Amino acid sequence: MISEKKCEVLRDNSIHPTAIIITSSFEDKKWKRKISDELGSNIRTWARSKKHVLIIFNKKDDAELKKSLFYKLSKSAKQHIYVGTVGMLTYPPRAQFDYVVWLFPEWTLRSIDYRSSERAKIIVSRLALLVASHDVYIGTRYGDVAKEVFGIKDEEWINKIFAERKRFNLPPYTQLVRLTMRDKTNAKAYARAEAIRTLIEESSGSHIAYGPYQELGAKKKLVHEYHVLLAGELQKLVEIYKELPIDAADVAPYRIV
Fold this sequence. Notes:
Elements: E1 18-23, H1 26-30, H2 37-48, E2 53-56, H3 63-69, H4 75-78, E3 81-84, E4 99-103, H5 106-109, H6 116-128, E5 135-140, H7 143-150, H8 154-167, E6 175-183, H9 186-202, E7 208-213, E8 224-232, H10 234-241, E9 248-251
Parallel strand pairs: 1-5, 2-3, 2-4, 4-5
Antiparallel strand pairs: 6-8, 6-9, 7-8
């Protein structure tokens, strides 16, 4: 329809957020400060100047953080600091902020989803919409982790992401299906997963199987689970696992390890 000029193409004006990384110093880590002294001082200075500051802190228990932030702040200055989680981006506030701070993005960057760095990039872009300058301050304890994502050009980051995905047979180079086996005991669940892995390896094709494995930090359940990850062409993968005695199959799984 575009080639025949039957519809009109509308292009959004893209924004290019700037991530300003502030890393916790040795003293901050030594004294186990909830927020780096440099960033905390900046936030208090902004609040005293009647600037509206939004702080994204992805934990519900923010009492210790507020105690550190509000140190020697007047009641009127405290009213200019807003603390919330990324959940607020579901219904973002209409009011513009003067400064936006994201604390500890490593909680997202170090998650077990292979798309974690992409989610972090998206979060920064959405936060940048809430401030006129499009600057997002990032407070982190691991500067090297943050700089690998936010401290390089987008083109360089994209090339790095694609290289990693190709190396580990991840999308878009292959498609993924996560097979789940459950049983009453850990040993029985593992044995089932091992048997499924053997059956998959005996089948012909260009697919690759990984596992068995359990989710890292999975919640304790009455039923034990093990997973086998299949990588390859989706239509051919379906033919492999559709007759197997599995309990669940997740296509393009959100969590893979």
